[in-house]
Amino acid sequence: MHKLILLLGLFFSNLLFANTADGEPNYTAIIMFVLFVGVTLFITYWASKKTHTAKSFYTAGGNITGLQNGLAISGDFMSAASFLGISGLVYLSGFDGLIYSIGFLIGWPIILLLIAEPLRNLGKYSFSDVVSFRLKQKPIRILAACGSLSTVILYLIAQMVGAGKLIEILFGLPYYSAVMIVGGLMISYVTFGGMLATTWVQIIKAVLLLSGATLMAFLVLYQFEFDFNQFFSKAVNIHSKGENIMAPGGLISDPVSAISLGLALMFGTAGLPHILMRFFTVPDAVEARKSVVYATGFIGYFYILTFIIGFGAIVLVSNNPEYLNDSGALIGNNNMAAIHLSHAVGGDILLGFISAVAFATILAVVSGLTLAGASAISHDLYANVFLTGKNNEKMEIKVSKFATIFLGVLAVFLGILFEEQNVAFMVGLAFAIAATTNFPILILSIYWKNLTTRGAVIGGSAGLFIAILLVILGPVVWVDIFGNNEAIFPYKYPALFSMVVTFVGIWFFSKTDKSKNSTAEKELFESQYFRSQTGVGIDKPNAH
Amino acid sequence: MQIRATKEIYQQLKEARIKILIPLILLTITSYFSFIWVIAFKPIFFGILIFDTNVSIGIFLGFLLILLIFLVTLTYVYLANKILEPLIKKIQNNA
Predict the structure, then answer these.
(1) Whole-prediction pTM value?
(2) How would you class B1 by CB atoms within 10 Å of its CB: exposed for 0-12, middle for 13-18, buried for 19 or more?
(3) Residues of chain B positioned with their CB less than 8 A from the CB of A67
(4) Whole-angstrom distance between the N-terminal and C-terminal Cα of chain A?
(5) Terminus-to-terminus CA distance in chain B, angstroms?
(6) ipTM field
(7) If you count Cβ atoms within 10 Å of the first and of the last residue's Cβ in chain B, which end, N or C, has fewer?
(8) Minimal-distance CA residue of chain A relative to B20
């Protein structure tokens, strides 16, 4: 705790040097930061008094309402990468930003229609509970934990590097201390406050982000009297790509990539461990259902806002020398489009507000990820594989706290290690792995009677291996990072191929599985399906 | 008696759920992959401006798709609460 206070002291003294364009400290940003950090640490303190059991640590006691969970899910999903990244992509090439937005959103009906209710009815703390419901605990938990941890760590690295860069540009803080502050705060939220604190941090951040983005879009459209015709024609006139920004451009160059990216985005969302974990925080399937509608509404609305913000930046930022460097590019990089726009429409006050919101966003997302990673280590690997399910709740909580600290330190370390690397591909890889390993084993364990442990383990790990291999041999790593001339695997997005490997592998090795075990597993399917559909037999939430 | 009643209601529940799920899933997947299909094979089509405006077909349909995704989730929850939930409650009360 002392180290944390020291770190915070360093942070705030650094903040005093947070400058606006003309060299004055941005007081709005500083006040907002202090408020956000203060409020969230207070919540963490309050939550720590309620977080004594494993159930409260992983699921906030199961008492979160549908609306609260919907906001928290949107909080987990609307990362700084999607706020700044998508508006930056729209700024750069217009329509292409919409491809990502829709891809991220289309996973939600799938989650709602096929996964949310069975997940709530079968699981306790993590999606591995569902997958191992009738399959053999050990091998399947290890596989699910590998899938979860690789998704979480890749996502964490991308968020950490993004966070460090962003804070470096916004506040002039050195990269190292920026990454360490993020790491320190996230460790304290999660270890002391568990899921309860993490959920409230998400809720606050989601409300802040939605209001900030709404205000920005409103101020942009206000300048055009809410006339989209005028708005878009101005953007086409100004942008160097002209009317090409209204149509699909360079993001996707061939049909295979289009479908592969489409699959990864659609089914990857349904396999993200930190998102799936949220469904255990609500009391029952009814609330789980409700939370998806709220989440889809908020996230969809948010993507419409980012699109308007991206186009707003084309119109109001791209031709203003105040925001451009000597070569005519945006100061910082294209991801700073939304930040510059906030200054263009709302001056220093809005700039300070939006910068603080971007920081809050990063903190909230990394906390959610770390909690999901820690639960994979403590609940899946430690409690169910190492202890083979013997109940030792005290130790499990202890392990989960150590796992949180371990993951936090690892994230800081990797964030520093990858500072100079292009990490954009890591989010893509995280989605590909989620779509290739987590999603197929989850969906098949719920709906396919003939799934056996052998099939799930062989198919799931083969897919995981292929997804990683294809990314390494593909253009992003093999050419851009290793500096080779030509990629061995020509496509950027592996999901189409790796998902086929997983599904065919699972089907083949389940069908040919004649072991005694597999017969028992198939016999258990009916009762599992009954519970998944009706919720008969699930735990009651904690009393208030 | 109760077990038999449960079995019948469970059967009804499964049938009702499939009737709700299949059209919604088909709608979601076909609309999304048609969108992707156009991007892959006919990107120029999305660049055409809707007559008399400066809004392209692609942007208009993209916004419409976001709205559709939300409506799918809203429809499902409405139907699930109205049709499936009473059946589920009956089964839970019998158990």
Answers:
(1) 0.91
(2) exposed
(3) none
(4) 29
(5) 12
(6) 0.94
(7) N
(8) A113
Q: Which residues pair with A280 in a beta bridge?
A: none
| Residue matched to tokens 């255990």 | A280
CB atoms within 10 A of CB A478: 18
d(CA B62, CA B46) in angstroms, rounded, equals 10
In chain B, residues with a C-beta closer than 8 Å to the C-beta of A228 are 53-55
Tokens representing residue A107 in the block? 């996973």
What is the C-alpha to C-alpha distance for residues A67 and A41, in angstroms, rounded to an integer? 23
HSE-CB at A193 with a 13 A cutoff on CA atoms is 25
Angle at A536 between CA A533 and CA A537, to 5 degrees: 130
A135-146 tens-digit pLDDT: 988 999 999 999
What is the largest distance, in Å, between two alpha-carbon atoms of chain A?
74
Name the H helices within A172-225: 175-222
Q: Tell whether A538 lies on the interface with B, counting CB pairs under 8 A.
A: no
Note down pLDDT in tens along chain B; length 95 residues: 567 788 899 999 999 999 999 999 999 999 999 998 898 888 888 988 888 888 899 999 999 999 999 999 999 999 999 999 999 998 988 87
Beta strand spans in chain B (E):
none
- Decide: A21 and A169 in contact? Cβ < 8 Å: no
Query: Which residues of chain B lie closer than 8 angstroms to A264, CB-CB?
Result: none
Is B77's Cβ below 8 Å from some Cβ in A?
Answer: yes
- Length reported for chain A: 544
